[in-house]
């Protein structure tokens, strides 16, 4: 079986329980493969990044395998505003967030609710210089483990969504994103839009942010914020200390 997210945001949980941690989110219009079903929970593999988790069985619309494959082959079209809404013919509104997928709206068989959208859309690959501009749309968004929206986002959800809005695919977690792209030898080689990764004492990648000009970085830590970056890591001028230990900077595009 296959499905599509027909609500603004669906929590994706590690286990089949409301008490389980949220590990990611499905945004409106994102589609997925169903791996396992119980009476109350559905284990899914998200088409965009192959991420696996559990969602509430009441929070999605079933689609056919044919429609799933059509969506896989359809260019990704996303909502480009912080908050927008879609309407039905009887004027019911559903709020959607920045990065919601609108790719299925032109397919009358999948869009059987006849959702209509009049806002600003974004599609296709943008210039690398647009990445930091997009990142600023999330500035001050509160940190939320597993989050992917301006109302709550984690470090890798932030980088994934910024890249997605510009037409480039990143995996979901920071450790997964660290396997992508080309490693740079020095901070000085980096360009705005490159990704900086940070590790813990065990050497595991636990954080990621987006490089800006003049050794600044924008990242989600408490909130989406801008800090200095040096060869040791992220320096928080408010607390006068380093908060994250730099591991590697990678050029994705």
How would you explain this protein's 3D organization?
The structure is a single chain. By secondary structure, the chain is mainly beta. It folds into two domains: 122 residues, SH3 Domains (SH3 type barrels); 122 residues, endopeptidase domain like (from Nostoc punctiforme) (endopeptidase fold (from Nostoc punctiforme), Alpha-Beta Complex). Helices cover 12% and strands 39% of the residues. The protein is built from four helices and 20 strands. The strands form six sheets. The chain has a six-stranded antiparallel β-barrel. The protein has a five-stranded antiparallel sheet with strand order 6-5-4-1-7. Strand 18 and strand 19 form a beta hairpin. Helix 2 packs across helix 3. The chain starts with a strand and ends with a strand.
How does the major sheet shape up? 6 strands, antiparallel, barrel
Order of helices and strands: EEEEEEEHEEEEHEEHHEEEEEEE
**What is Rg?**
19 Å
Percent in strands: 35-45%
Helix content: 10-25%
- Overall 3D shape: globular
Q: Could you give the count of β-strands?
A: 20
- And the CATH topology of the largest domain? SH3 type barrels
**Low-confidence blocks of residues:** none
Gap from first CA to last CA: 35 Å
Determine and state the CATH class of the largest domain.
Mainly Beta
Count of DSSP H/I helices: 4
Number of domains: 2
Structural class estimated from helices and strands? mainly beta
- Please list the strands of the largest sheet in the order they lie side by side: 15-16-17-18-19-20
């Amino acid at each position: 079986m296959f499905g599509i997210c027909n609500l603004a945001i669906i929590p994706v949980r590690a286990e089949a329980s409301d008490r389980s941690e949220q590990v990611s989110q499905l945004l409106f219009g994102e589609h997925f493969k169903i791996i396992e079903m119980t009476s109350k929970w559905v284990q899914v593999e998200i088409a965009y990044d192959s991420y696996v988790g559990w969602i509430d069985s009441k929070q999605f619309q079933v689609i056919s395998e044919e429609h799933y494959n059509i969506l896989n082959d359809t260019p990704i079209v996303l909502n480009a505003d912080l908050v927008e809404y879609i309407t039905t013919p009887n004027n019911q509104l559903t709020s959607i967030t920045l990065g919601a997928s609108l790719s299925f709206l032109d397919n009358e068989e999948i869009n059987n609710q006849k959702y209509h959208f009049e806002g600003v859309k974004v599609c296709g690959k943008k210039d690398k210089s647009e990445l930091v501009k997009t990142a600023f749309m999330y500035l001050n968004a509160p940190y939320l483990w597993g989050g992917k929206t301006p109302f709550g986002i984690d470090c890798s959800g932030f980088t994934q969504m910024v890249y997605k809005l510009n037409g480039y695919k990143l995996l979901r977690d920071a450790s997964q994103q660290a396997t992508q792209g080309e490693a740079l030898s020095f901070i000085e080689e980096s360009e705005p839009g490159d990704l900086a990764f940070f590790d813990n004492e065990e050497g595991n990648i636990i954080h990621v942010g987006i490089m800006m000009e003049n050794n600044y970085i924008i990242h989600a830590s408490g909130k989406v914020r801008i800090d200095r970056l040096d060869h040791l890591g992220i320096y928080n001028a408010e607390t006068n200390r380093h908060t994250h230990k730099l591991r590697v900077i990678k050029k994705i595009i």
